[in-house]
Amino acid sequence: MVEPLLKDAVLRIGEVSGIEGRRVFVLVDRNKNSSDLLLDGEIVKNVAVGAYVEIRKGFLSIIGKAEGEKLQEDIGPRKAAVGGAYQSLDKNKRVLTLSLCGYIGPDGKFMGGIKELPLIGNEAYVLTDTKIHTIHSLLKEPEALSIRIAETAIEEVPVDLPVDGLFNSHIAIFGNTGSGKSNTLASLYQELFRVLNRRPQFKQNCRFLVLDFNGEYTREACLTTEKTVYNLTTREDSDTGIPISMDDLLDVETLAVLVEATEKTQKPFLKRTLRFYKNAKDKGHYPEYLKAILRNKLKDVLQMANKEIAFRLLDYMGEILRPFVTEEDRRDLQSDIEFHNTSSSFRLRGTTRYFNDNDADAAIATTKLAAAIESITAEMVNDLPELDQFRLFLHLQLAIDLYQYKVQNDHIYPVINRFIAKQRSIARTFKISATPNFWGPHNVVVVNLRDVNLDMRKTIPLLLGKNVYNAHKTEGNKKSLNIIVDEAHNILSKESFRETEEWKDYRLETFEEIIKEGRKFGVFVTIASQRPNDISETIISQAHNYFIHQLINQKDLFTIGKAVSYIDKITEESIPTLAVGTCIFSGVATPMPLKLRIRKLPLAQQPSSHTLQFSTLWSLSGPLGTAAEDK
Questions:
Q1: I need a labelling partner for 625 at 20 to 30 A (CA). Which of 92, 222, 446, 612 fits?
Q2: Which residue, 373, 406, 430, sits at the end of a domain?
């Protein structure tokens, strides 16, 4: 009995002197104001702001976190003077302010939340190593699967993060540039892959899609060596595009995403064009069928009375014929026809042969437009790339719709312009395959978007996220899919001036649907960003677990404070001063916020996100002279 009593006497720091809701005040004993305590020959850190304190109430250990301390004047009776001289008395008492965060029950397990409040007079103690490990144990069962990538920043206690509760949740990692967020993301999944690769059925039942905007995770040993990497580029032709079948590429949903088609006007137009194109391709003599369509459409246009629409349709005929004639000939296609305003009809230039007379067919056949159509051969059509063939049908369908007064040109032509502008980028970032296999031989895919232009940097992640999510939903809830988005503000930003409001809303709604509904289907999202204020509030608030590195911008701090309800005041105030590699871990996987120091990965396994060192750019002893001479 003597040793426990002596141990308690050393660890006791004071007693509860006041309670205000979750805030508890502890009056510290006068002999416990030193920075360290000596226990069994070992130095124990005394309580300080940020440390945990145990308050004993019967068999219950209530755990609080020191949020602050102050000196309180002792208003007790004064002592009489001795020998006619007054004594110098310390009239102040040290008072700690604690915030209750949980309790250790009779079963020895730590639980977050408040079960009981302490009573005035309950004794407060410094936590022993055993109890420090107890409150930092996040595993519900001792044998539960876990990863170890961090230790507590203050107590330096290793922390095991549970696989269930962390990776089957939405994760948000925030922090300024250079704060260590990329190392945290890589450490999380690298350790997960190391642990789970030994498990049967892991590769068959779990998939991971990494959207890498800066090419940080493409190193051979980063994340895992068993991964499929797509190094996409829109700068030059490449064989590393995303494999896709032509049927999947020429799908209305895929095309609508690629060309940012509006839902009510442009998407129905794309649907009509695709139906028209596929019906034409299914014909036994596709090139001849295409020529027959062009002949009929030319006749319809040259017999129109609406001059404005007719000339617009003739321009579209010129666009359709562009791949089959020289540029000089294309500019000259309309030189032999003119519109007669009095009769409101077309005729051969300089003649009286009108195209709506009895010999209209013969007259039309003599035009340069008709000659250009007849010059088209089967080889010309078949040698044309598939996307170029589809481009012809976009103009052809628009010509048909305008002729029938179904659409307005100003509503439809922008989507054709976007297709033309993105056609080369689409051809470079997608690789047409009869048997496409996006995942390849592995269950981890990294899509490197560093060399992709700005338009496709928003489009490709949206298309991939939407497609893999829809495909995974057919699996029910029997397999998992983790979508990992680094530099997430590139795709999840609520502020964008390069796209229409309607398309921005569609982009955000797609990812918001994934993060709100995906859990039901085993789909989980991890986002990392240095600008949380730019990301949709819906997406931030739906995250379950947060790793928050140093943030300085007040708008970012306000966003975090508003979205993350688990963080206490003192923890929130410490975010701007966090050291590199240190973060606040908070969420459903931990009963209280923890300040963790994430271990730095070996160089070969680190993401390519290092800060450039000027010392690597030159040598101080180079041809310009020595360091002493430079001074």
A1: 612
A2: 430
Is 472 found in the same domain as 413? no
Pairing of the two strands 92-104 and 60-73: antiparallel
> What CATH number is associated with residue 184?
3.40.50.300
State residue 418's pLDDT score.
92
In this structure, are residues 449 and 211 in contact, taking their beta carbons and an 8 Å threshold? yes
What average pLDDT is seen over the chain?
A: 86
**Last residue of some domain: 396, 430, 464?**
430
> Taking the model in full, what pTM does it have?
0.84
Given a contact cutoff of 8 angstroms between Cβ atoms, the answer to whether 544 and 170 are in contact is yes
Q: Which residue has the higher pLDDT, 509 or 154?
A: 509
Report the C-alpha gap between 495 and 39 in whole angstroms: 57
Confidence at residue 614, expressed as pLDDT on a 0 to 100 scale: 67
Backbone angles phi and psi of 380, in degrees to 5: -60, -45
Q: Which residue has the tokens 């490197």?
A: 448
Rounded mean pLDDT of 216-221? Answer: 92
Q: Identify whether 628 is part of a domain.
A: no
Q: Is the pLDDT of residue 593 over 80?
A: yes
Rounded-to-10 torsion of CA 49, 51, 55, 59 = 170
Instruction: State the angle between helix axes of 286-302 and 266-281 in degrees (0 to 180), rounded to the nearest 10.
Output: 130
> Domain range spanning residue 61?
2-74+92-135
Q: Tell me the pLDDT tens digit for each residue of 252-271.
A: 999 999 998 988 889 999 99
**Burial class of 236 by CB neighbour count within 10 A (0 to 12, 13 to 18, 19+):** exposed
Distance CA 164, CA 141 (A): 11
DSSP-derived secondary structure for 246-313: HHHHT-HHHHHHHTT--TTTHHHHHHHHHHHHHHHHTSTTHHHHHHHHHHHHHHHHHT-S-HHHHHHH
| Alpha carbon distance 392, 20 (integer Å) | 75
| Identity of the residue numbered 541 | S
User: Structurally, how many domains does the chain consist of?
Assistant: 3
The three-point CA angle 141-142-146 to 5° equals 90
Q: Which amino acid is at 275?
A: R
